[in-house]
From TrEMBL:
It comes from Akkermansia muciniphila (strain ATCC BAA-835 / DSM 22959 / JCM 33894 / BCRC 81048 / CCUG 64013 / CIP 107961 / Muc). Pfam families: Orn_Arg_deC_N, Orn_DAP_Arg_deC. This is Diaminopimelate decarboxylase. It comes from the Bacteria. It catalyses: meso-2,6-diaminopimelate + H(+) = L-lysine + CO2. The lineage of its organism: Bacteria, Pseudomonadati, Verrucomicrobiota, Verrucomicrobiia, Verrucomicrobiales. GO terms for biological process: lysine biosynthetic process via diaminopimelate. Belongs to the Orn/Lys/Arg decarboxylase class-II family. LysA subfamily. Its cofactor is pyridoxal 5'-phosphate. One of its GO terms (molecular function) is pyridoxal phosphate binding. Its EC number is 4.1.1.20. Specifically catalyzes the decarboxylation of meso-diaminopimelate (meso-DAP) to L-lysine.
């Protein structure tokens, strides 16, 4: 699948010339490839075909309504974590009855909204939340569909900020407490429909083993809950990692790569399918990064170069407010020039943004082509948790987003203006 590749020395997204696009639309600019998004979605579905698994796209990864609409039209469900995400899904034409709603801190207003819209299920993260949902459902005269998120206490082998399935993480309910919680709910909470079981052990997993361990540990629990409480589904969460390094070899950007990561779609399927298939439950997966991560790039322009005593800096017009992953998780993103440098002159540099923070970098000590002032760079693998984690810090307007389809492209979110920055603010009399 060619999503970002050089043609005659210029980087393209599908058949769109990114130099021309950025010259026209300005930078920083998020660009997504429609074909790549669909390719990843369909490949995951195929890999899990023996389970007939439902793919519930994790909206938080990239929540633009054009992307959600694309997923909805292709039959995806959605994994949401807020009332705002449900609102987006509905605006995008998504089906609420295909939405699962996770998160440790759902508010009463959000729970009411989700119940009124008829979501598929709440993935509940504590006993207190179970009781709250029961009370709200009772006040509305309905039964709320719920699944409890089990925390299986397995090692995910990912960055500590994105591990979610260890006992010390805030997510889910301890494995050992699940059976008694379902028993309590069945006994005491009549406005709940015990519909399923859910887990999610972390994000950017690059090995199959943690998935295997978690599924093997939790499947007997799912079987027992099916027998005792008639649950219908088991969601195994998302977390499938992508390749962040070496993504552009031979002009092909692929999210799987046997050399870089042991996790491939087939090893993932091999890890989970044999244990899940005999359960006879509706299986859900909740991928975010896998679908959009390598389908997006952040295009930025080099504003200045600075040679300091200790370092060379390439100062670009995208900052940590546009892409926070390097600052937050030491996340690595490949950075390549939009116009190839035939001379091959290289430099070791920090690629930094305009924000007043020393943590405002996109790369540090990076060996890279010696791009000059005014030239464009593409920050790759930025489709997931890129724009969706962006902010207005330093009063910087949020970037524009463009969706490419073949040789066509559309602005799917316009660049914010300075007026947008103060919308809703007021000065007291
Ligand atoms: C409950 C839940 N499901 C799915 C996801 C999606 O994860 P990923 O983008 O790693 O597939 C997340 C985020 O980690 C999550 O918290
Ligand atoms: N936002 C993170 C992952 C966390 C996923 C949400 N639970 C990232 O960029 O890698």
């Amino acid at each position: 699948m060619h999503s970002f590749a050089y043609k005659n020395g210029t980087l393209y997204c599908e058949n769109v010339n990114l130099q021309e696009l950025a010259d026209k639309e300005s930078t920083p600019l998020y660009v997504y490839s429609k074909q790549t998004i669909l390719n990843h979605f369909h490949r995951l579905r195929e890999a899990l075909a023996p389970l007939n698994a439902e793919v519930a796209y994790a909206v938080k990864a990239c929540s633009n309504i054009a992307i959600l609409n694309l997923m909805a039209r292709n039959g995806a469900g959605f994994d949401i974590v807020s009332g705002g995400e449900l609102f987006r899904v509905l605006k995008a034409g998504g089906d609420p009855s295909k939405c699962t709603y996770a998160g440790v801190g759902k508010t009463e207003q959000e729970i009411r909204y989700a119940l009124a819209q008829g979501i598929y299920c709440f993935n509940v993260e504590s006993e207190a939340e179970l009781r709250a949902i029961n009370a709200i459902a009772a006040s509305m005269g309905v039964k709320a569909p719920v699944a409890v998120r089990v925390n299986p206490n397995v090692e995910a082998g990912t960055h500590k900020y994105i591990t979610t399935g260890k006992a010390e993480n805030k997510f889910g309910v301890d494995f050992e407490r699940i059976e008694s919680l379902y028993e309590m709910a069945a006994r005491e909470l009549p406005n709940l429909h015990l519909k399923g079981l859910q887990m999610h052990i972390g994000s950017q997993l690059t090995q199959a083993k943690p998935f295997l361990e978690a599924v093997r540990k939790v499947a007997p629990l799912a079987a027992s809950l099916k027998e005792k409480h008639g649950i219908e589904f088991f969601s195994i969460g998302g977390g499938i990692g992508i390749v962040y390094q070496g993504t552009l070899d031979s002009g092909v950007q692929e999210w799987w790569n046997e050399d870089c990561a042991q996790l491939t779609l087939s090893t993932y399927a091999q890890a989970v399918v044999p244990t899940l298939q005999p359960l006879g439950l509706h299986i859900i997966v909740e991928p975010g990064r896998l679908i959009v991560g390598n389908a997006g790039a952040l295009i930025t322009r080099c504003l200045y170069e600075k040679n300091g005593k200790a370092k060379t800096f390439k100062i670009v017009d995208a900052g940590m407010n546009d892409l926070i992953r390097p600052a937050l998780y030491q996340g690595y993103h490949e950075i390549i020039p939009v116009r190839e440098h035939p001379s091959g002159s290289c430099v070791t540099a920090d690629v930094v943004g305009p924000i007043c923070e020393s943590g405002d970098f996109l790369a540090q000590n990076r060996d890279m082509p010696d791009v000059r002032q005014g030239e464009l760079l593409a920050v790759l693998s930025a489709g997931a948790y890129g724009f969706s984690m962006s902010s207005n810090y330093n009063s910087r307007p949020m970037a524009e987003e463009v969706l490419v389809d073949g040789d066509q492209w559309n602005v799917i979110r316009s660049r914010q203006s300075w007026e947008d920055l103060i919308r809703g603010e007021s000065i007291p009399e």
